Amino acid sequence: MNEILEPGMIVRHPDAPEWGLGQVQSRIGDRITVNFAEAGKRVIDSRRVALELVDMNTE
Questions:
Q1: Which of 43, 30, 21, 41 is nearest to 2 (CA)?
Q2: What does the pLDDT read at residue 56?
Q3: What is the pTM of this model?
């Protein structure tokens, strides 16, 4: 799933809903940098976490 993520896409972390929505900043290899509304910038290891893509048309 994470391999389709591109900068600008909106995601949420399935194990940290309190972080709120996040915008993908970059994806380099297995590392995805996301700027979350409530947790700031986080680097996610995509081998461990499958971020959930958010459809802003249904939010």
A1: 30
A2: 79
A3: 0.91
